[in-house]
Amino acid sequence: MNSEKKDTITTQEDILRSNKNILSEHYDIGQLVRQERIYRGYINDSYKIEMLRYGKKSRYLMRRYRQGTPEEKVSFEHALLLELQARGFSFSPQVISTKEGTTCVKIDHRSKKQDQMNITAVLSFLSGKDKYSWDTPLCSHGESKNSAKILSLYHNTIFNWKGIGCWRELSNFDEISLMATKWEGYARNTAKSPIDEYFLEQFDDLLNMLNSNIPPQKKYHAMPRLAVHGDYHPGNIKFQDGKVTGVFDFGWSKIDVRCFDVGLAIMYFCTLWENINDGILQLDRVENFLEAYQETAKKTKTIGPLNKLELEYLPHMIHMGNLIVVDWNKRTIEGY
User: Measured between alpha carbons, how far is 81 from 323 in angstroms, rounded to an integer?
Assistant: First the structure.
């Protein structure tokens, strides 16, 4: 990574100026013509940038990672994207190298309150439309089916990649094992927000899910492992004419069991989140999603379709995905 000299950041205008300086000093992709903040997501800040080079305009995504994001985590994400590119997976963004040959720039900023260390990277801009978000994920049946095919293709493309040695995260099984104690602390320190009220209303049921819907540890770790996407839902996918054109936001990727990635995706793609059907899993959608995933996987020569053990515990993985999202809501939106 490259380190930029200390700079004073106090306003959005300062950030835009900093972006321009980073692009000029560390990238050889042309002259900045336009930049626009993308107001999607809760963790990192993203900007759509337009560059002019040799009379041709090109679009890129500039990402400023959240303050405190470990360098090793960013390195894992970028190594994954580079590996996908090398293996011919055409749906993920490409990492744009700096003039120095690195995948990102480490920026040492000074604010009025404290010193801040941020990491910035530039990625290719994926084609297609942003039609959905994580909390309004209900896409069409055709889009859901095609998304299942692309998830299967992703898993079979990246299988056997071991990651990089400098970064290891807790498995989702281990994270959920720690949730009961953490949630009891949440319950003692809730505010009066809608999510807090809902959390308290559902607290006993949530604890019951933690205790009764998690597979045995031995079974969990016996399932095939790979670099899961970790947040595969319609809000992290671009579509065009009912087909997936791009998959992005690999910030939750880590080495974990493949079945969890499928269970989390099913939770998002196959559950209604509105009106009287809120929270109801649509079994016809599950059947179509799973069929598309399995049929695509059968055509590959790597990990293949979900095996007998994975299919047995897939319902548990759907529950686990739901619990992970509930916990993320508490930690991220409420600031825990």
Answer: 27
The larger pLDDT score, comparing residue 164 to residue 11, is at 164
Rounded Cα distance between 301 and 318, Å, is: 26
Tell whether the torsion through CA atoms of 48, 36, 119 and 108 is positive or negative. Answer: positive
Gap between the Cα atoms of 193 and 168, Å rounded: 34
Within a 10 A sphere around the Cβ of 93, how many other Cβ atoms? 22
Question: 176 with 214: CB under 8 angstroms?
Answer: yes
Spell out the SS3 assignment of the chain.
CEEEEEEECCCHHHHHHHHHHHHHHHCCCCEEEEEEEECCCCCCEEEEEEEEECCEEEEEEEEECCCCCCHHHHHHHHHHHHHHHHCCCCCCCCECCCCCCCCCEEEEEECCCCEEEEEEEEEECCCCECCCECCECCCCHHHHHHHHHHHHHHHHHHCCCCCCCCCCCCCHHHHHHCHHHHHHHHHHCCCCCHHHHHHHHCHHHHHHHHHHCCCCHHHHHCCCEEEECCCCCHHHEEEECCEEEEECCCCCCEEEEHHHHHHHHHHHHCECCCHHHCCCECHHHHHHHHHHHHHHHHCCCCCCCCCHHHHHHHHHHHHHHHHHHHHHHHHHHCCC
pTM of the model: 0.92
- pLDDT category at 336 given cuts 50, 70, 90 is very low
* pLDDT winner (highest mean) among 79-88, 127-136, 156-165, 177-186: 79-88
Report residue 304 CA to chain centroid gap: 23
Q: Which of 120, 64, 125, 69 is nearest to 94 (CA)?
A: 125
Cα–Cα distance for residue pair 290/263, rounded to 1 Å: 10
Domains and CATH numbers, the chain: 2-124 (3.30.200.20), 141-333 (3.90.1200.10)
Residue 114 and residue 95: Cα distance in Å, rounded? 30
